[in-house]
Amino acid sequence: MAPASSIISKLKVQLKLSIARLRMVQQKDEAVSKQQRRAMAQLLEAGKVESAKIRVENIIRSDITTELHEILELYCELLLARTGLMEGPTCDPGLEEAVKSLIYAAPRTDVKELQTVRMLLMEKYGKEFALAAMENSDEKVAEKVLKKLTVTPPAQELVNGYLEEIARTYGVDWPKRPQADLGEPPEFDDDDDENPSGGQKVLAEPLQAGGAAREAEEREELSKATPPRNFGPSSPLRVNPPSPSTDNLHPRVKGTLDLKPTRKAPTSNPKPGIQSKGPVGGTIPDVDELAKRFAALKK
Description:
mainly alpha, 9 helices, 0% strand
């Protein structure tokens, strides 16, 4: 038996190859499915409904296989992300469903890389573990995998649903909808032989009056309405938010509406009870008065 580290390293490589191969197969199947759907639409348009019902089963089977490949791809990604849990001799309970589902489903697919992954997993966990997975004796294989691998004819409701969806996508009128029976049109009696268009003149006046009143109401409502906040040209400057990180899971760019106003500097208010003293006498003295005061101080 090869060392566990060697098996894990080989398993990583094969899981990556399996993921790439499964994605490629899915893209190929989707392209083929589009061509088949277009052919089904042509059959429905030509009226060959029975032939379309038989051939649409191939499309249904192809879609089921594509869904199975998607599930197996997710299991491969799970094992690739948790290869550290596969170092032990026994299978981790969190990986048991993925491992046994791959062992069970790999022989039923055409992906060779999955066959290699299956052989490495069987070599890693032993013969008994592999037999339990292949027979699903402990029912650890995923139920959705078992359902996708079950080969049963599709239900008639599913077939009709596929055909209706194909017809709607490609603009085909199927199933044919009977036209509603509207009955015979009502008879029109024109008693006014001299002026056959007189009835139109009678109806024109109230219609015009009602239209003018409605137009006046609409103008009044528009005059009262307030324009939206985002009305007008938008700013040419656009800033993309940074990518999320562990520190900031929801980064956000602040705009002008998000910025808080800065605090104003406190103004120097005079203390209560203290008033600023103005000039002596309430007025500014002139030069002569100042000269007289200096002379009085010298005495």
